[in-house]
Each structure stands twice: as structure tokens, then as C-alpha cells.
Amino acid sequence: MNYFSHYYFFQTENPYTTVGSILPDIARFSEGKKKLWIPQNSEIILNQIQKGCDLHYAADHYFHQSVFFIEAEIFIKNLFQKNEIEHAKIRKWFLVHILIEIMIDRVLIKKHPKILDTFYADFNAVDLKFILMYLEKCERKGLEKFADFFQKFVDSKFMFSYTTEEGVLASLDRILQKTKQEKMPKNYVEKLMAVFPEIENYIEKHIAVLSLQLRT
Description:
The protein has eleven helices and no strands. The model has no long low-confidence stretch (mean pLDDT 93). 71% of the residues lie in helices and 0% in strands. It has one domain. The protein is globular and about 55 Å long. By secondary structure, it is mostly helical.
């Protein structure tokens, strides 16, 4: 799942646990590939962050094996095939995967914009030094770079752009280029935009089932 989905489904009253539930995704901007984990610590806040990380991993494990994700993947791949949305230097399976996650965020944010406000409020409420302390104990490097990213992530509030099609496309392009794939060419974007409403309607129609499954 993407940033907002983790928050929407698993937000808690503790901002450190809430930020922890997003941290495995944004920790990619530090150096190191190990799963985020530390043993029980005398510093309570670090344990709260770990609780959030555990929630994140459990949710992702369930989500990627869920009927919702598998059927959404099939639905979108069929749309791509039917509309000849192909590019030799864009991995279709990867784009479909990311598109599902961003579209879930888009649908949820459009329905619950005030919850996105609380998302950013929770990020502003935490002391970054505890996040950095936690990552250091996880043997992550490049923490100065991560600290810069963290602040930009909070200040930019870029997820509000998910309510526009241009914002979704810009995020897809950023992810493609970070994974050394090509930016989507104009004809590819035009075909993708043509099926955009069908994808969003599908996600919106089925998201209640996903919500029920994740919360039980």
C-alpha cells in the first residue's frame, strides 16, 4: 500500500506509531536494505515507532496477497492489453502495481481530505531526532540525506496533488525514473488517461471490501 492508505487504515492516537507505519516506505531514502526492526528498547518512543513499522509490514504482506489486489491487477492489466498501453522500457507489471496503490490513495483522499490534514499534522508533531535515532539503531546510513527528505516530504504536502490526474501522472513518472525506467511518452499518457476513469471507478467500487478485510 502507499503512504496515505497505511495512515487511513491504521492511524493511532500516537503520532510516533502513526509515522512508524509509514516509515518503511520513506526509509528507502536512507542507505540500507534490512527490514526495519529493533529489539525492545528502554526508550519508549522507539518502541512506539517499531509498533508502527510492524503494522506496516503486516498490512503490506496481507494486501499483496489479498483478493482485492489480485483482482485489481487483473482488471488493470486487461485494460492495458485492450487499449494497447505498452512501452518496451516501462515494466507493465510494476506500473500496474504502483498505479493500484496510488489510486487507492487518490480515492481515499478525495473522500476524506481532512484526514490528509491530520496525516501531515502527525508528521509535524514528531521530533525528527527520535526517527533518526531509530533508523541509526536499524543500522541505516545517509541519515542527513534522509532528514532533508523527511522535511521536504512534510512541507511539500504533495499528496494533495493526488486529487488531480496530473498529480497522479507526475508521481508515476517520478517513481519510474527512480527505478531507472523511462518517463511515460505522450502517446502512452494519452492512452493511460483514457482508461483512468475506469480504473478509479473500479477502485472506488471495491475499496469498502478492502477496508473491511484490513480492519478485521
